[in-house]
Amino acid sequence: MKILVVNCGSSSIKYKLYSFPKQELLTKGLIERIGEKGSEVKTHKEGIRCLFSKLIENKAVKDLSEIDAIGHRVVHGAETFQKPHIIDNRVIKEIAKCCQLAPLHNPANLEGIISCRKILPKISQVAVFDTAFHQTIPQRAYLYAIPFYYYKKYKIRKYGFHGTSHQFVAHQAAKILKKPLQKLNLITCHLGNGCSITAIKNGLSIDTSMGFTPLEGLIMGTRCGDIDPAAIFYIMEKEKLTTNQMYDILNKKSGLLGISCLSNDFRILKKEQKSNIYAKLALDMFIYRIKKYIGAYMLILGKVDAICFTAGIGENNPEIIFQIKQDIHKILPKTKILVIPTDEELMIAKLTYQLIKE
Ligand code: ADP
Q1: Total structural domains within the chain
Q2: Omega of the bond leading into 21 within 30 degrees of 0 (cis)
Q3: How far apart are CA 167 and CA 183, in angstroms?
């Protein structure tokens, strides 16, 4: 059975084609610069057509009827989607309703889904949500302590993101530890350009560092993570900034980039840290925030079987993981520290396969 995974970003489409049940990767590719000046691909609809042409050109399939199912990454599933869903008209309507919570991502995801359905109307398509894995977080952890009215009226709450990655890493950890996931407590740290950390109890997410949007929590490449909201109002007033300008600063000009005034790229900061005190400070702050979250999650979990690191930073910086490991082992010497490469597309393919087999 051939399963295509489609990940439509705001200006790109990533895809991977797998053979199941072997879970073998047959081909992968990327369509970039969608809608940008000078680009041949103007819309996601054209991008999807281009994707299908590439599959045939590269001889990954002889014709499109060989594709048995498509799994789509969808960023926001709000409280509606607690697990992956087979896509029908009702699901499309509900995903459209979630667009207001993720205006940069969900519309692109939706365009990808609609275009694929037009080209291949008969094959099963599945939506896999970044937020779904975190829908088991209890109310005491997902609510913000602002008037309850805002939750009721606007659904302001913590949703969490990177769910597919945290879920994949948790599954892999269970394999490595040779225990059923339902019996494991884990802390999974996804450290890429975006960073988030999740507390997993008996296989279920019970808290995560990202919030209503991906801005909350850890320090990231260009996002600030946790901050006193009062500081934001103060800056806006002093600098006479609009909401959009401030939003841009917190999302695109803060984090490692904001502190170092140099780069959001971890590799560059590591290279420069001996001669540049701000690069060093950015790295120190980044690691400090991770430790703070791990400490908090250790207490809410009680028992921790393993702490797992993944994504670009988590997978490629053994000396930093070693530094964090030493601190953890001072308190809990037996906690296992695992570095596990993430594969969100494979997780989407697996979830798609499971669902269409049911
Ligand atoms: P994204 O969230 O965009 O998928 P990645 O998971 O690719 O991001 O992570 C990007 C981050 O990982 C960057 O800060 C980059 O510097 C860092 N990174 C990637 N490869 C390495 C490496 N070999 N050594 C150190 N850092 C790395």
Answers
A1: 2
A2: yes
A3: 15
Cα of 194 from ligand 1 centre, angstroms: 10
pLDDT in tens, the chain (358 residues): 999 999 998 889 999 999 999 999 999 999 999 988 888 899 999 999 999 999 999 999 999 999 999 999 999 999 999 999 999 999 999 999 999 888 888 999 999 999 999 999 999 999 999 999 999 999 999 999 999 999 999 999 999 999 999 999 999 999 999 999 999 999 999 999 999 999 999 999 999 999 999 999 999 999 999 999 999 999 999 999 999 999 999 999 999 999 999 999 999 999 999 999 999 999 999 999 999 999 999 999 999 999 999 999 999 999 999 999 999 999 989 899 999 999 999 999 999 999 998 8
Same domain, 196 and 315: yes
Q: Is residue 145 part of a domain?
A: no
Q: Both tokens of residue 269?
A: 């900061």
Ligand 1 contact via 193 beta carbon (within 6 Å)? yes
Q: What is the CATH number of the domain that holds 312?
A: 3.30.420.40
Q: Is residue 151 part of a domain?
A: no
- Please pick, among 63, 88, 130, 305, the residue that the annotation labels catalytic: 130
| CA-angle at 45, arms to 41 and 46, nearest 5° | 30
Report whether residue 313 contacts ligand 1, using a CB cutoff of 6 Å: yes
Is position 327 annotated as part of the catalytic site?
no
Instruction: Give yes or no for residue 194 CB within 6 A of ligand 1.
Output: yes
My answer on whether 334 and 198 are in the same domain is: yes
Q: Is 317 in the pocket of ligand 1 (CB under 6 A)?
A: yes
Whether 321 and 201 share a structural domain: yes
Helix axes 229-239, 243-252, angle to 10 degrees: 120
Does residue 307 fall inside a structural domain? yes
Give the residue, out of 266, 272, 290, 343, with the most ligand 1 atoms within 8 A of its beta carbon, to mutate for a pocket test: 266
Domain annotation covers residue 166: no
* Burial environment of residue 288 by CB neighbours within 10 A (0 to 12, 13 to 18, 19 or more): exposed
Which residue segment(s) compose the domain that 340 sits in? Answer: 179-344
